[in-house]
Structures are given as C-alpha cells and as structure tokens.
Write a structure and sequence with these properties.
single chain; alpha+beta; Immunoglobulin-like; eight-stranded mixed β-sheet; four-stranded antiparallel β-sheet; 2 helices
Length: 192
C-alpha cells in the first residue's frame, strides 16, 4: 500500500514539474502569413508578421527585426507597421513601439513584395532580430521588469507561371477528325 502511494506521489510530482517547466520556458514566437498563397510571376503580394505572446504573461511593448530576401526571385516594395504600434523604423531595420492595447496575437507589420520572373518554390523570406535591449528582438514588460526575446521566422514562396496553356480550338479538333475520316475512307476505297 505504501509503495502504491509513493508511486502515485512521485507521478504527480513529475506531472507538476513538467507543467511548471512548460510555463517557465514559454517564449513568444513570430510567424509569417502569406496573404495570397497563389502568387504568379510579376504579381504583387503581402506577408503579415504576427507575434503570439499567449504564453509569456507579459505585455509586448516593441519589436525590431531585419528582413532577408532572395532578391533573385522576389523584390521588396514597402511596409506598414501594425495598427497598435508607432513606426520607429530606420533604413536598416523595421521597428515599432506599442501605442495601443497589448493583446496575445499581434500584427507587427505587413510587408509588400513583387514576384520575379522565375516560377518555382523558394525559401525567399526570413526575419531575424537577436534581442539586444535597444533595437532588435521582441520587447516585453510585466510592469516592473523588462524582458526580451529573439525574433526568427522564415517562409517559402511559390511563384506560379502565368503563361496561358494551349487549348485546342473546337474547329481544329473538327478539322482533325474530318481528316482522319477522309483517310479511313481512302483506305477502304483502296482495298476495294
């Protein structure tokens, strides 16, 4: 009886440690959302950058990151900082400071691009922002202390060829059929 109680106690202790470790190690993550997954050659498209802070328990106060693109396959056009932030970007990085109400899932920015002329799937876009306490990373506060996390996210882009596929016209199919019928008729006449 004592061994069963001891095993149950140890099992509950392990579960408690796992639950505590899960919440203690929780970090926010940044994701990229391609708004139109069917991108054609030469078409403009947007990518939204989201920070999910459901698991931190802190309020997001700012962010900063660099954009890395494969300029062979896409070209960067412009950006818009999310509605809850004030744009404090520079030519070297994208950055925003919280001016709205913190939420769990927040739009950091929307980036606009134009697809190149080569169709295919490319690992074309990545973000990076190693937390430095000044410009890069995700900045959080609990009202007393400040916390920082690195930003790292990437996505692949598929560019589709928009050239029209050749579809035979009905008259061409009709002409081909008439020619085949004529050949069959000639062959029968030659046998007779």
């Amino acid at each position: 009886m004592k061994s069963k109680t001891l095993i149950c106690l140890l099992l509950w202790l392990c579960v408690g440690i796992l639950v505590y470790a899960e919440t203690a190690l929780a970090v926010p993550y940044v994701s990229l959302e391609v708004l139109d997954p069917h991108i054609e050659v030469g078409e403009s498209f947007d990518i939204q950058i989201w920070a999910d802070a459901d698991n931190t328990g802190y309020d997001l106060t700012g962010f900063g990151f660099d954009l890395n693109t494969s300029t062979t396959y896409i070209s960067y056009n412009s950006y818009t900082i999310g509605p809850e932030f004030t744009d404090v970007s520079s030519p070297n990085y994208f950055s925003g400071l919280m001016t709205g109400t913190p939420a769990n899932n927040m739009l950091l920015a929307t980036l606009s691009f134009t697809a190149g002329t080569t169709p295919g799937t490319f690992s074309a876009i990545s973000l990076s922002g190693t937390y430095d306490g000044l410009f890069y990373g995700l900045f959080y506060t609990d009202g007393v202390n400040n916390y920082g996390y690195d930003i790292s996210a990437s996505t692949s882009i598929t560019i589709y060829d928009n050239s029209p596929t050749s579809v035979p016209e009905p008259s061409a199919v009709l002409l081909l059929g008439a020619g085949l019928l004529g050949l069959i008729g000639l062959r029968k006449r030659a046998r007779e």
